[in-house]
Write a structure and sequence with these properties.
By secondary structure, this protein is of the alpha+beta class. The chain is built from 22 helices and 27 strands.
């Protein structure tokens, strides 16, 4: 066989099942002996998944729009999103240097007969089945099985033999792959005469106006191939190609010309390269190494290229965009039926699931839609065309196939709405002792710290930029983040309360997970929040749940390591709830921010802070250094503020009373409902700090003492004066005093108030 040809050595071929011959992309000859059988089409009638048409305004905020359609679309597990007419991003894959010269390795996948249809026969025969090893190089000649398939009574004695795993094939450029795919489809659907194609036919006569089969025709033929085949059919596909290697189809920063020409597409949240960087996108808080596992991937397909039933890792969301080519047909089982789906799969394929327990989320041998429907599991259908998005919701099993050559791009992501499911996935992976690709606790804590920073900027420093406001709104949406953090704190608190009776404890140092993600040696749970160690082994750690199984040493030799104390986590939770005193204290002590400092705009700064803990001694040194640096500025600021308060308090109180109460302008009148004590300036300590924020629907007010005096107001008054951001430090503090929101926070106090205290 010539070196340029790429095909398997032909096995003995049954008369009814014909081998399809492939060739190298550089060859000028291709023979497709398989052909379309319209009379045997098998197409299941399925309910269509919903299609959404966002307006231009709705399309501006990607994650907000996805959250808005979730309640409608998630019951289907999948939906189709058609962008507004203006959305026409350039496809960089069509640029000559990529289209013609960037190469990728196509994978060969045999698709005939890979769907099971009969549960009863499968279960009955599997009990006496002897496992056979699948052959990866040579397709099997399954004469006996084929004979039974033709009679619709499948023999499952050698079921595993028919599973031909995907293997690497030849290299293609996008140009040569398209030529290959188009030629295959043309011959397959237009060769009605078996004698039309012979080995000597090099140049096939193809009509000028070539007939194109519809999506429904292709779908019916695909169903026949995978359920009742008469030929051995192998197709090529380029699945999950790294967009960094092949190139993303969207404009990227690395392409200066595209950046200048299409800035709106470069920065858009619908550019899949940006979705991990959006406010409220949790994966932005992972390390760069872990984030690479969830970077955009390119998929290149041809007619019948399959996508087997699978669920996203960690049950993340998935967003797919088709850049160019022919349609893709999707099938989906909603996430709420995932457990039922897995049970049915084990019923139909018990030996295969037992042989590949870690790959049950992506098995090649598949269940047909008709089987799933017969078992009471709903299956929804969706057809994706170029310039359209398909959104997969968490936990949804999905599959599909391509109707011809196409290029699409997909990315996994985790908005805030994923958090409740994410915690369940952690527990599920621990039960299965399955390795995780990300740290749930790291994402949760990173988002909470970012939310606290956003509140500090907007509510305390009055830095109301569009970016800050968008960030604050994203993280407070429906209280999801605060609820998830509260649930995690409760769980962690119970475990520590039990362990602290027997174990000594200390904070993690900076070297604990500086280089590698630490995992429980028993259940593989991520150890970002806490871990148990023993002096007998320096590199072995377990989660609090498996402290007893760590080793046989006495409890006195074991140590509980923690990243944050529970009181610190409670403080962060209070900050998320809008408690201004907690926002101020957390920003100062954890983020290193003060009213005279500028918040870091780079979110990676927080991600780096969250990725490791510093030793206690180093923390102390850094705090001392920070306090020394800002102490003079803070002291001068306080002096100016207090003097300003002295001069303005009576005048402002009179104005407020006059506007709101319509009574005497004397601030000390007995009929006035606003009382200001003379000792409002009586600061007890040089370390006393002032903080607060403008009251709003989502911001709580802390009525605390300032020094020995108290400031109270019986009725909320909206400020009538808008102060410039440049003078925010002075003007906003005055507003806080005038509105009764002055807060005293001692830098050495563990918490301004208890967790049960409310600022409402």
């Amino acid at each position: 066989m010539g070196q340029n040809f790429f095909c398997f050595q032909d096995p003995p071929i049954n008369a009814r099942r014909v081998k399809v011959t492939r060739r190298c992309p550089k060859c000028n000859f291709m023979k497709v002996t398989a052909r379309w059988h319209p009379e045997d089409a098998k197409r299941e009638v399925l309910e269509e998944a919903p299609t959404f048409h966002p307006t231009e305004e709705e399309f501006k905020d990607t994650l907000k729009y996805i959250a808005s359609i979730r309640s409608t679309a998630e019951p289907y597990g999948i939906c189709r999103i058609i962008p507004p007419l203006f959305w026409k991003p350039p496809c960089t894959l069509e640029e000559k240097n990529i289209w013609e010269f960037s190469e990728f390795v196509a994978h060969i996948q045999r698709i005939d007969g890979h769907q099971v249809q009969h549960a009863q026969e499968t279960t009955a025969s599997s009990s006496g089945n002897t496992k056979t090893k699948r052959r990866k190089g040579t397709p099997a000649a399954l004469d006996s099985q084929l004979e039974n398939e033709m009679n619709c009574t499948t023999n499952y004695q050698n079921l595993e033999d028919c599973v031909c795993e995907s293997i690497p094939g030849p290299k293609f450029s996008l140009k040569t792959f398209k030529k290959y795919a188009d030629e295959f489809k043309t011959q397959y659907f237009n060769n009605t005469d078996k004698n039309m194609v012979t080995d000597s036919d090099i140049n096939l006569a193809i009509p000028q106006n070539q007939w194109e089969p519809s999506v429904e025709i292709i779908e019916g033929e695909y169903g026949r191939i995978v359920q009742n085949p008469t030929e051995e059919i192998e197709v090529l596909c380029g699945n999950t190609l790294d967009a960094v290697v092949l190139s993303s189809g969207f404009p990227t920063v690395s392409d200066d010309s595209e950046a200048c020409t299409f800035p709106e597409y470069l920065k858009s949240g619908w550019n899949l390269n940006n979705i991990l960087k959006l406010p409220g996108s949790l994966l932005s808080f992972e390390s760069s190494e872990a984030s690479r596992n969830f970077s955009p991937r390119i998929n290149v397909g041809m007619c019948f290229s399959p996508l087997y039933w699978r669920v996203e890792e960690h049950q993340l969301y998935s967003l797919s965009y088709m850049h160019l080519g022919e349609p893709k047909v999707w099938y989906c089982v909603p996430g709420r039926f995932a457990v039922n789906f897995e049970a049915i799969r084990k019923k139909y394929l018990p030996d295969l699931c037992a042989e590949q327990p870690d790959e049950n989320h992506n098995l090649i041998m598949q269940l047909s839609c008709s089987v799933l429907k017969a078992e009471g599991i709903p299956v929804y259908r969706c057809v994706q065309y170029p310039r359209e998005y398909v959104l997969i919701f968490p936990g949804a099993y999905h599959s599909g196939f391509d109707c011809g050559f196409n290029c699409s791009e997909a990315v996994s992501f985790a908005p805030l709405e994923w958090l409740p499911r994410g915690q369940n996935v952690v527990d599920l992976y621990c039960e299965q002792r399955r390795k995780t690709l990300l740290s749930y606790d790291k994402l949760l804590l990173g988002a909470a710290r970012e939310a606290a920073r956003a509140r500090w900027e907007v509510d305390l420093r009055m830095m109301r930029t569009p970016q800050n406001i968008a960030s604050k709104d994203a993280y407070r949406r429906d209280g999801i983040l605060a609820k998830a953090l509260d649930s995690r704190i409760r769980s962690e608190s119970l475990k520590r309360e039990y362990l602290c009776i027997s174990l000594k404890s200390r904070k993690m140092d900076g070297t604990f997970d500086a280089t590698d993600k630490r995992e429980c040696s028993i259940c593989l749970r991520d150890l970002y929040f806490s871990a148990v160690a023993c002096s007998c082994s320096e590199d072995k750690f377990v989660c609090p749940d498996h402290a007893k199984q760590l080793c046989s040493c006495n409890w006195s030799k074991k140590t509980l390591l923690y990243r944050y104390e529970i009181s610190e986590l409670n403080l962060l939770h209070q900050a998320l709830d809008g408690k201004l005193s907690s926002v101020y204290k957390w920003a100062k002590e954890d983020l290193g921010l003060s009213m005279t400092s500028v918040a870091p705009q780079d979110r990676k700064h927080l991600a780096q802070n969250v990725s490791s803990s510093r030793p206690a001694s180093e923390d102390l040194k850094m705090k001392e250094s920070k306090s020394t640096t800002v102490s003079d500025a803070d002291s001068k600021l306080k002096e100016r503020l207090l003097q300003a308060i002295t001069n303005a308090s009576k005048r402002k109180q009179a104005q407020v009373e006059s506007q709101v109460m319509g009574t005497s302008t004397d601030p000390f009148s007995s009929s006035s409902k606003m009382k200001v004590k003379e000792n409002i300036l009586g600061c007890q300590s040089a370390k006393t700090c002032i903080g607060g924020g403008v009251n709003s629907a989502d911001t709580k007010t802390d009525m605390k003492t300032l020094g020995g005096g108290k400031f109270s107001i019986s009725k909320k008054v909206e400020p009538k004066v808008t102060y410039p951001v440049s003078s925010v430090a002075n003007s906003h503090f005055l507003t806080l005093v005038q509105e009764g929101k002055l807060v005293e926070i001692s830098s050495d106090s563990s918490c301004t108030s208890s967790s049960s205290e409310s600022d409402d």
